[in-house]
Amino acid sequence: MHHTIACTPRVLGSPPMGRTSGITGLVYRSIRAVTGLVGGGIDAILGRLVLRFGASPPSATREALVAALNGVLGDYLADTGNPLAIRLRLRRDGVQLPMERDALAEAIPSCSGKLLVLVHGLCLDDLQWNRLGHDHGAALARDLGCTPVYLNYNTGLHISTNGAELADALERLLRQWPTPVRDFAIVSHSMGGLVARSACHYGAERGHAWPRQLRKLVFLGTPHHGAPMERGGNWIDLLLGVSPFSAPLARLGKIRSAGITDLRYGNLTDEDWQGRDRFARGDRRRFVPLPEGVRCYAIAATAARESRLPERKLPGDGLVPVASALGEHPKPELALHIPKSRQWIARGCGHLDLLGSPTVHRRLARWLSETASTSRRR
Q1: pTM of the prediction?
Q2: Is 87-226+284-377 assigned to CATH 3.30.428.10?
Q3: CA 86 from centre of chain
Q4: N or C, which terminus of the chain has less Cβ within 10 Å?
Q5: Are the C-beta atoms of residues 193 and 354 closer than 8 Å to each other?
Q6: How is the chain split into domains, by residue range?
């Protein structure tokens, strides 16, 4: 980059490209030798993290740090076999559930036929459903008598990768559930809603039984049509790459994980990214409708407490626009068409506040307790 800037650009032409020589070249060759070890440097740092966290006892702090790391670099961790890469598993109280009927009955002595699966969002983990002393899963278990099970997964992987794995995990869970499942619902936050939709798609495609048992699917702040922050990051990549002077800096933005880039438009399937440059602009995702026969509900959050603005123009929750969270889109063929009676906007609420809000909990309890006939009358 120094060579490019130092050389006088040709009139109406590209600046001469190349590398410096002499003493300056020697200095930069030394620098290149160091920067060429960036990958090795990352591995060295991650290796220290493995030593520090790999053998440490489980704690909420450790889980949160590892979850954040997986959100940013989770695909790299998985590709390099790093032990800090999170494997998708279903848990309770941070403990992985066995996928065998008798062992499940022993692990959850009070399991009921009302199963609730909770799916967290980007850079989070299953323990972070407990926010400000409130856990939607525990509160719904208390109020509705359901049995909550929490998904923990590597949010840095492609959404479709996690969706396909979740589909298989749910098939095993429901087959081995100790008591007949009469009511099965999923509550998802942020990216978790996209993973849940992807799981429904792959579960139906693979002929699984659980999609036919799923009754309700609730989305909390899910970016169904993408998040502007990731699209903004993609614009920065594009603008930095326009000029040869700034092009080397564009590479820095491309360390972000596949999971994050999937949030640009809300990718759900392998076809949305396979054989494509995941940093390229343009919404080329395959449209995936909501699962047939499942009552879907959406909660959006807005920072505005009081506003006369129409819903479409309300400010979002800091990360996800209201329209995206409600599944609405200017193109009718991309809209999810969630009935208005199953939409709700939490006012004066941030993206993470959706996890600890008592008013959100009351809305969840109301929706999850509805019967099909009650829902039709509203």
Answers
A1: 0.83
A2: no
A3: 14
A4: C
A5: no
A6: 87-226+284-377
